[in-house]
Amino acid sequence: MINYIKSLIKYGSLAGVKEFLVLVFTILAARCGITLNEKAQQLLTCWSSFQLLIREERIQVVAVGDHEFKLTYAASPSGKNQIELALRVPVSISSDLLVFNQIFLKMEYQHVLEWFSSVRPQGKIGNIVDLGGNIGCAALYFSTQFPEADIFSLEPEAGNYARLRLNLESNSGRKIKSYQAAIWTESCKLQCVHDFRDKKESSSRFVEPSEAMDASAQPVDAISIQTLMQIAGFERIDLLKIDVEGAEAALLRDADFQDFIKEKVSRIAVEVHEEFITIKEVTTILHPLGFETKPIDEFLCGIKTNL
How far apart are the C-alpha atoms of 295 and 206, rounded to whole Å? Predict the structure, then answer.
């Protein structure tokens, strides 16, 4: 109960007296069984998210608004190597908090990096490409692990990309560049569909247009991996992260993309969506290209031991 009251006081200090009182009355109404309107339900969702965040020692929520939390995260126990993020809330509308939790609290990529290091302890990671950049969490996490690396983040969905740009601007000292486009087997136009999994913006898929598609579907530019390399100014990729909501199937089955990762990529981490391609098939594709592979959490990871 004491922690709950402390959380309320903290929320009030950030949101102001008026918003604090609105929250308190909303909590009381919910406990009395009063039917809440949509705005009140979203406020309670924000409140639940806020309580989760302030329990974490490395997180400090520094601002609360109608549509976002601004926070700082200490990437090391000493409090150094700090990043700033603005997350859209509540989670019923946005998946930002879910993505943040996966990367910074559950440390999904730490397990991947630990395996890479165990296979090639002396391997240098200088260039990182982040396909499916979302709001910038993965790119910022990689920057805390490899401060000297050059990172290029690609994100197609307009709302995600706007938030990615905002988060990168808040961490302008880090060596991260971004570009708005989808990755595809060729440079072309694709369209956004929200028919996958939770149907939120983090699960947006980009597909080739068809006559049956909704005319209001969001169009987006798509680029090939070769075009991406020209934009990024990279010759090689030391770590290629792919989280593209099913588009990995088209990429990995494409002969030109296979030739590219065989010649230019040292490490790869693919989040495999088995609705479109299986881990077994991805493994079968990567082995002949020179990769030793291992499934880690939601990823299939590959590393070349002979360069």
Answer: 25
Q: What percent of the chain has pLDDT over 90?
A: 75
Task: Assess contact for 266 and 303: CB atoms under 8 A.
Answer: yes
The answer to whether 158 and 191 are in contact (CB under 8 A) is: no
**Residue 146 near residue 124, CB atoms below 8 Å:** no
Regarding whether 134 and 227 lie in a shared domain, the answer is yes
Separation of alpha carbons 250 and 60, rounded Å:
41
Give the structural domain span for 249.
Answer: 108-303
Cα torsion angle, 155, 159, 161, 164, sign: negative
278, HSE (Cβ side, Cα atoms, 13 Å): 3
> 185: how many CB neighbours lie within 10 A of its CB?
16
The number of folded domains in the chain is 2
Residues 60-69 pLDDT 10s:
999 998 789 9
pLDDT tens sequence across 90-139 = 877 788 999 999 999 999 999 999 999 999 988 899 999 999 999 999 99
The backbone torsions φ and ψ at residue 150, rounded to the nearest 5 degrees and listed phi first, read: -90, 125
Q: Which residues in 215-250 are b (16+ Cβ under 10 Å) and which e?
A: eebbebbbbbbebbbeebebeebbbbbbbbbbbbbb
**What H or E segment, with its residue span, contains residue 300?**
strand 299-303
- Write out the DSSP string of 176-190: EEEE--EE-SSSEEE
User: Are 74 and 112 members of one domain?
Assistant: no
Among 210, 177, 84, 58, smallest CA distance to 137 is for: 84
Q: Which of 284, 286, 282 is CA-nearest to residue 274?
A: 282
